[in-house]
Amino acid sequence: MKIAVIGQSLFGQEVYCHLRKEGHEVVGVFTVPDKDGKADPLGLQAEKDGVPVFKFARWRAKGQALPDVVAKYQALGAELNVLPFCSQFIPMEIINAPQHGSIIYHPSLLPRHRGASAINWTLIHGDKKGGFSIFWADDGLDTGDLLLQKECEVLPDDTVSTLYNRFLFPEGIKGMVQAVRLIAEGKAPRLPQPEEGATYEGIQKKETAKINWDQPAEAIHNWIRGNDKVPGAWTEACEQKLTFFNSTLNTSGLVPEGDTLPITGAHRPGVVTKAGLILFGNDDRMLLVKNIQLEDGKMIPASNFFKGAGSSALELTEAELVIAEAVRSAWQRILPNVLEVEDSTDFFKSGAASVDVVRLVEEVKELCDGLELENEDVYMASTFGDFTQLLVRKLRGDDEEGECSIDYVEMAVNKRTLHMPHQLFIGGAFMDAEGAKTFETINPTDGSVICQVSLAQVTDVDKAVAAAKDAFENGLWGKISARDRGRLLYRGPPSPSTRPDPTAT
């Protein structure tokens, strides 16, 4: 079938590529004009493939389709328009032109959450089910007949990014291909959308994303995650706007002990703890925020809010300087409008978007042989200087906040001194049991007491389970690709030249 793809983004690129693999002829791609010297991924891919690419700044003027635009489109002879993700308003002269009409992808279960911020509102409303719809375009706003829908469970701590990356992106691509296949086979349904349960919500913008504290903790959590990462839920505290990310209701075992953070309009002050920032709803239930963006754009761990500047800058070795320059070149390729990437160059203030974050992370991983790097790291170190320092710390293996503090028990055995931890290990730290409870551990060879070992109480078990759940759901291991996990598992021992000298002091 002859197809015109109208849209943009990595999602549009993937749909385009999969349609070509299915044997369809993409006769033209219509995408957005270049921004800050950067072409959209869909247009870039089509140009590589020799497919005609059109970048119209607008399709209409004064409510009428531009004749020149319509003529260029009609000359392609498309039999179907596929709109995987499109931010432009396409006139009905284009929508209705092909033999099979036009189909559109929408990231919600229509008729619920019509509008451009459907994923945000799915989370803000606390929906237990999410999904996407592929529908036949009409002259309404996401009101056309349904062709195909797929649903998924919305997890308690899902954000716009996690829901999109886990289901809406990969399954949406498959869904678009399936929809085109059904059309080609003459089996595509046209199911009118029911009006019952229909909702429309406006576009979420920064000015409308301010947190309303006069509601339960779950509603505040849903508001924060529904605006994570864009546009970002914010509040006023410490005479500045703070934007919150990575929220969770999983606070089992957490004790609100730490430095208080007065928040304008909040039911109770927040509490900065080692785990992050604890917030309270008007029902006195807690939620935890793990990352905060300051008004100047810098992203920090919430646990570091009252801490001063980080550790001093590292002095790079010659090998590390080579890596830094290679990374600088990657930044330069991604930010073509920046004449020279300096240490103060901010990735996002220079025009980078979320798609560029993905590209940067992948390029740096390739440069650094599968280094454990995730999108969040770019947000946490958005200037080139900070990013380079973070990268080098990771390469050296000292990117953690500090060494784990261990209280060892020493024991002399066979002319050797053994060092044995005796505390509970929870959430990456050794700690005493609740109430400092202990029990004796016995040497089976002679019945003597080796030492007192912490005796976990019910509250300690709750903390351990909560920490394990958080590590499983939010930890780095589950986020990195199978390829990178494999590299870590099969990584050999360090070469002799890189092993520490046991005689060194």
From TrEMBL:
GO terms for biological process: 10-formyltetrahydrofolate catabolic process; NADPH regeneration; one-carbon metabolic process. It is an enzyme of class 1 (oxidoreductase). The keyword Phosphoprotein does not apply. It catalyses: (6R)-10-formyltetrahydrofolate + NADP(+) + H2O = (6S)-5,6,7,8-tetrahydrofolate + CO2 + NADPH + H(+). Its EC number is 1.5.1.6. The keyword Protein biosynthesis does not apply. Residues 318-395 form the Carrier domain. Keywords: One-carbon metabolism. It comes from the Eukaryota. GO terms for molecular function: formyltetrahydrofolate dehydrogenase activity; methionyl-tRNA formyltransferase activity. Gene3D superfamilies: ACP-like, Aldehyde Dehydrogenase, Chain A, domain 1, Formyl transferase, C-terminal domain, Formyl transferase, N-terminal domain. InterPro entries: ACP-like_sf, Ald_DH/histidinol_DH, Ald_DH_N, Aldehyde_DH_dom, Formyl_trans_C, Formyl_trans_C_sf, Formyl_transf_N, Formyl_transf_N_sf. One of its GO terms (cellular component) is cytosol. In the N-terminal section; belongs to the GART family. In the C-terminal section; belongs to the aldehyde dehydrogenase family. ALDH1L subfamily. This is formyltetrahydrofolate dehydrogenase. It comes from Saimiri boliviensis boliviensis (Bolivian squirrel monkey). The lineage of its organism: Eukaryota, Metazoa, Chordata, Craniata, Vertebrata. The gene is ALDH1L1.
